[in-house]
């Protein structure tokens, strides 16, 4: 049951950027109406909602907000509890550095090559996967797992000793890959433990319930003990 | 003359991300030592400074900071005058949305295709320009100029009525293109006026003095009246 003031998120299920916003809304216990935006289909009105033509778009407080990082910073500033940005500038820099790590570097090297070939070509009926791109993503993910493991050897959470937007940004990307079973959790036990902890938060429930038509999730995807 | 505590920026001249940080440092009147980082050459130590292997990297306050947007937010939080982020969450969202517009969308569609072909292949001795990419960048820039023009018809500065990080992010990208004369300023008189105003700020002086070896700037590049 939603009211006129319930925020509405235009999204698609396996977009890491949409998931990032959903996880932050969930963590802050904001009820949201999810509307699937099939922006690649004729008749999509995405450009009316966001001139950049991208999802997510969040309708909240009477406005349409775009760009996942900008949306999440807005949510953290307007709904302070629980805080997802630490208090000192140097800690905040570290959170933002790691958000950019995932949203730029990890996406370029891993999420996009794998999802575009294994998911989006299927969903958009745009041909067969290019196995070279998938392989390059699967090669690159190893170095990223090692880097994240090295951070988590020294820290409780990715950016420091408190849970932050960096953890949800990382989990948003990794959970998309985990849906199609492309994360080798055996490679790093600290990363597996961290993901199990993040995954068990109530904010994660909606993401774990996602089903993409014609593409069943990996059997362990929604299991908290994987 | 620099002291041990002078911040040091590892950069290259025509990187929009490095320019963005230089412009913010300049606007806040922070003296900085510029060190050219030729990260593509053997022996570069970029990975020791930033595991993402990217510039800019700023050494400041005893730390090495990476990711241009995260660096600029850090600088704005630690050196508040003059402020480059507005005070309300909705205005701050608009600044961050436009920063992402340039650093992601404009870069993907315009800055990278044009600079990679016209500048970086030459500097890195990596072959001849692919004219299809240059043409696609030159086509795309028209829509961006129209969009920026439509914003500036309604606002004094890009994100609203105060100068912000969005203006310097935009100017960082446009100034790299302007160095090789790839901005059609005749297309939008409000955009030209805005750029002339930004370009005349003292923060811009160091950027206008840039010279890339073997690649002279366009004749109007450093002229305040162009």
TrEMBL record, chains A, B:
It comes from the Bacteria. Residues 5-83 form the GST N-terminal domain. SUPFAM superfamilies: GST C-terminal domain-like (SSF47616), Thioredoxin-like (SSF52833). Residues 88-221 form the GST C-terminal domain. GO terms for cellular component: cytoplasm. CDD domains: GST_C_family, GST_N_family. Keywords: Transferase. PROSITE patterns: GST_CTER, GST_NTER. GO terms for molecular function: transferase activity. Gene3D superfamilies: 1.20.1050.10, Glutaredoxin. The keyword Transferase applies. This is Glutathione S-transferase. It comes from Paracoccus sanguinis.
């Amino acid at each position: 049951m939603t009211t006129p003031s319930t925020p509405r998120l235009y999204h698609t299920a396996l977009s890491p950027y949409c998931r990032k916003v959903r996880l932050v809304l969930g963590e802050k216990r904001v009820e949201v109406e999810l509307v699937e935006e099939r922006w690649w289909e004729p008749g999509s009105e995405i450009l009316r909602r966001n001139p950049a033509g991208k999802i997510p778009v969040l309708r909240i407080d009477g406005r349409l907000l775009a760009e996942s990082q900008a949306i999440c910073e807005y949510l953290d500033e307007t709904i302070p509890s629980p805080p997802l940005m630490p208090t000192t500038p140097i800690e905040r820099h570290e959170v933002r550095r790691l958000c950019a790590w995932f949203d730029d570097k990890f996406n370029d090297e891993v999420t996009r090559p794998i999802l575009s070939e294994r998911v989006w070509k299927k969903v958009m009926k745009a041909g067969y996967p290019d196995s070279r791109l998938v392989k390059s993503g699967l090669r690159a993910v190893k170095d990223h797992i090692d880097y994240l493991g090295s951070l988590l050897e020294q820290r409780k959470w990715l950016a420091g000793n408190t849970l932050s937007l960096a953890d949800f940004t990382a989990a948003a990307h990794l959970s998309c890959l985990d849906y199609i079973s492309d994360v080798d959790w055996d490679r790093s036990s600290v990363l597996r433990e961290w993901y199990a902890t993040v995954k068990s938060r109530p904010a994660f429930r909606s993401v774990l319930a996602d089903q993409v038509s014609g593409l069943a999730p990996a059997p362990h995807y929604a299991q908290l003990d994987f």
